[in-house]
User: Which sequence fits this backbone?
């Protein structure tokens, strides 16, 4: 007698490839941040005539206003011969900081409906606003500074390392201030009014239209602790090789920015649920 034929079994499937959870979360975060960036672009620039054009026209109008106004009472700026270049090198870093700090500080309120979904975290909302406004501010600075250097008779000798360093420090400072303000605005509604009052003199105290070196010693001792004074000074050393900016302290700006950022991240991790449930 022949032995019975053994039953046929389906071939064993190869084991599914193991995908680390960290990689899955990283890819999901990238997609989420990109989606939030696109939403921010359509909301911030897509609802107004001209769209992104206003991101260039607003700082250009401010620079022209400063240049024309001060040229009526002064023969030459504090550095060089071009009022446009002098005020652009001071205003654009300040504008970039202001843009990042303000938008990042309101990230949770702006994206609160989306944060109810598990795939969207508070960190995604902050990073989306930071990336978009950093990119926008950088493009605006390149277009305006490039255009100014093209139309004026300037003998500026560019130092890319100092220029990029000033822009990077501005972004880091804006992220630190914005992240901490994101917590304070969510926990204390009156902080928005308080911060607005405290922030108003910042434009006058950040070296946008004057040099730190031209101030009296008492004012120097006070304004040295304003990190934006160091940033605008560093930016100008990238365009004016004769300007040393001996007062500039990069470690001070970096330590202060990182301290604000770490404090904001710790508080946000602790209180973000309380803020979202308000």
Assistant:
């Amino acid at each position: 007698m022949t032995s019975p034929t053994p039953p046929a079994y389906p071939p064993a499937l190869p084991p599914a490839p193991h995908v680390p959870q960290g990689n899955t979360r990283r890819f999901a975060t990238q997609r989420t941040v990109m989606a939030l960036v696109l939403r921010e672009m359509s909301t911030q620039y897509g609802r107004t005539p001209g769209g992104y054009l206003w991101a260039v026209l607003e700082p250009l109008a401010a620079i022209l206003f400063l240049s024309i106004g001060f040229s009526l009472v002064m023969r030459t700026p504090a550095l060089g011969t071009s009022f446009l270049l002098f005020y652009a090198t001071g205003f654009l870093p300040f504008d970039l900081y202001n843009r990042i700090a303000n938008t990042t500080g309101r990230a949770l309120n702006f994206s609160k409906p989306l944060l109810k979904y598990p795939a969207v975290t508070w960190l995604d909302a902050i990073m989306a606003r930071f990336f978009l406004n950093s990119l926008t501010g950088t493009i605006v600075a390149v277009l305006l500074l490039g255009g100014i250097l093209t139309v004026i008779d300037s003998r500026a000798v560019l130092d890319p390392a100092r220029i990029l360093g000033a822009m990077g420090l501005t972004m880091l400072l804006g992220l630190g201030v914005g992240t901490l303000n994101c917590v304070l605005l969510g926990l204390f509604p009156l902080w928005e009014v308080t911060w607005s009052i405290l922030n108003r003199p910042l434009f006058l105290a950040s070296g946008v239209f004057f040099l730190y070196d031209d101030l009296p010693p008492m004012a120097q001792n006070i304004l040295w602790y304003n990190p934006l004074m160091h940033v605008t000074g560093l930016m100008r050393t990238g365009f004016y090789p004769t300007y040393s900016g001996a007062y500039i302290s990069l470690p001070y700006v970096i330590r202060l920015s990182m301290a604000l950022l770490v404090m904001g991240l710790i508080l946000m991790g602790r209180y973000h649920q309380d803020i979202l449930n308000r």
